[in-house]
Amino acid sequence: MQSLTLITKDEINFFHENGYLVKRNFVDTKQVSQIQDKVIEHLKARVKPFELEQEVHYPGSPQTKEEKGGDTIRRLLLAYSRDDVFAQWQINDKATRVLKALFDSKKLYLVQSHHNCIMTKQPQYSSETHWHKDIRYWNFANQELINTWLPLGDETVENGCLQVLPGSHHWDTPRECLDERLFLRKDLACNQKWLKKSVDVELNKGDLLFFHAAVFHAAGRNKTQQSKNALVSTYHSEKNQEIVNPFPDLEPVKIV
């Protein structure tokens, strides 16, 4: 398989066992800078559509639009149709070949709903994201979806890097272990053995993170004075199809 020139069998096995994989120095940093410049431009001009921190009601987020920080942007939505610089990345040959190898498939589709966005953590008003699985956002035939997380700068514990629970895409998590929003409850004794497995996924500019949509992940607040931005995309193969599409105008993009 041609894709094995970009990913090894050991890396494929690691991904399937742990639910995530970091490819170091995988992306041309000039391309990353171009994407970051466009993100900064859209944040500054407040180019719609976007989601505010206030809307998610996560710990640390402003409670109302009227209070200080209430207009802080959390996500720039619809990245694929927002600008060609984002779309070109999302269908680029290098990352999509790795995805095809992870799916063991020749066909690949980009999901345009929910992810397909630029995640931002702004200084002062960023929120904390509790442990969750991204499969809660969609209604697919099965859980086989993979996210790519492209950091547009260095990501550290201090500025709220992603955290994962390795292997949690294999867990059959009892409903009583989750709260009403499907976050893993940190206060329950039965969840402590899982939470102890937490890994901080620190990334550098040029790295690319692949993670299974059924892996529990979380993120802390940005405690620095610089914005942290990442382009996040979700993919599936022909072996998985959406049962109910809440956004019929946003059909998956087939990647040749």
Describe the main β-sheet briefly.
Answer: 9 strands, antiparallel
Shape verdict = globular
Count of strand segments: 13
- Low-confidence segments, ≥5 residues, pLDDT <50? none
Portion of residues in beta strands equals 15-25%
The domain count comes to: 1
User: Alpha-carbon distance between the termini?
Assistant: 16 Å
Task: Give structural notes.
With about 260 residues, the protein is α+β, with helices and mostly antiparallel strands. The protein has a single domain (about 1-235), classed as Jelly Rolls, CATH 2.60.120. It has helices at about 10-20, 30-45, 55, 80, 85-90, 95-105, 190-195; strands spanning about 20-25, 50, 75, 110, 115-120, 130, 145-150, 160-165, 200, 210, 215-220, 230-235, 255. Strands 1, 2, 3, 4, 5, 7, 10, 12 and 13 form a nine-stranded antiparallel β-sheet that branches. The chain is globular. The mean pLDDT is about 95.
